[in-house]
Write a structure and sequence with these properties.
Layout (H helix, E strand, L loop, with lengths): L3 E4 L3 H14 L2 E7 L6 H5 L2 E6 L10 H11 L3 E3 L9 H9 L3 E2 L4 H8 L1 H10 L15 H11 L3 E5 L8 E4 L5 H16 L4 E5 L5 E9 L5 E13 L2 E7 L6 H17 L4 E9 L5 E7 L6 H8 L3 H9 L16 E8 L11 E2 L2 E3 L6 E5 L6 E2 L6 E9 L2 H14 L1 E3 L5 H9 L1 H4 L7 H9 L2
Parallel strand pairs: 1-2, 1-4, 2-3, 4-5
Antiparallel strand pairs: 6-7, 6-8, 9-10, 9-12, 10-11, 11-14, 12-13, 14-19, 15-18, 16-20, 17-19
Helix pairs in contact: 4-5, 12-13
Amino acid sequence: MFHKILIANRGEIAVRIIRACKELGIRSVAVYSEADKDAMHTRLADESICIGPAAGAKSYLNIAAIMAAAELTDAEAIHPGYGFLAENASFAEIVGESGLSWIGPSPESMRIMGDKVAAKHKMAEANVPLVPGSDGAVTDVEDAKRVAKVAGFPVIVKASAGGGGRGMKVVHSEASLANAYSMCRTEAGAAFGDDTVFIEKYLEEPRHIEVQVLGDKHGNIVHLFERECSMQRNNQKVLEEAPSPFVDEETRAKICAAGVAAASAVNYVGAGTIEFLMNPDKSFYFIEMNTRIQVEHPVTEWITGVDLIEWQIRVAAGEPLPFAQSDIKMKGHAIECRINAEHPFKFTPSPGTVQLYHAPGGRSVRVDSFLYTGYTIPPYYDSMIAKIITHARDRQKCIRRMQRAIDELVVLGVTTNQELHQRLLANPGFQKADFNIHFLERWLNQMHL
């Protein structure tokens, strides 16, 4: 087992990893920008070291500074968390070449799954269901028209190197295809340094279902069931739950088996997530793999009892998974609400000083956060400041527990999206699980707020 791990991240995920390290008896090193000098993760870690100015590009994305910090502190491994450099295969390669351990999958796995065209080819070989569309990159407008006619409108043009909802254009007719294709290539080249795009059939009323997988260096790969992630705005998740209230046992067996097949196809090591779109008839299609821990991992931890961060560390150190698929059981229901420092309906960010912070508590309530009274939320990073997660024997009880927890939350001094969650949890459509990925945006438009 490692003696010291450097966490190449900030915020709640850095705090989460530091806590896992402490429970494993491992010393932790926090890196921080000048804006994060007083952040929670710098206070909780055994050591902390400044790696640059406030801007992420000059600190949390500064590979040279992070590697220098690892060398100065004699760290043996680097955990990237999520975001920033977590899915950067070149960084993972540098870590390995420097003699340190990368707490995550191999650079090769990351490159295949990070390239959506290469990932589609690999999934086709593994018989994982794919959305109808181009077999690979679409090279010109005529090729785009040919693929779109076969798939049938509407279609979606996607950047191969894209992610986080960027580099996508939905096209409803051939007349607008040429312009969308050109725009998508231009945006992809500017945002990702790669203007490769492909085309898929646009599924109009799907749900977003993802499967959590976990693999070790000995060839063992298991799934930890699925999560429902359809509650989104601008392709950004707002609330997640596990298991999906829409997925029956037969469909669960199929989609989880597809998740394991996808991970096995790239010899996956560590925690990863296979993302699918599911139609109302419960047919489903692979869309991408996230080769890192997910923001919503706590809901899976609660229904399975498996500590995903701990097992990321253990498998990176070479330990085999001590459980087989048949050993993993699902218990109850879990929901996660992402608390952001932003206007609940205008979604404008609200950085500033927290004058008072009170986290909810009580039975089966978990809060992952880096807030404390007096902390100043900087304006340079993602607006998520906390995650509230509840667990109960069934979904209705879990919803009521979350409503109680959200009501207990107090954050004064900045604006948060607390009211959005209060209204969403009370919404009849949400309570009946009658929704898809368009539900939240349509509901917000109806409110005219």
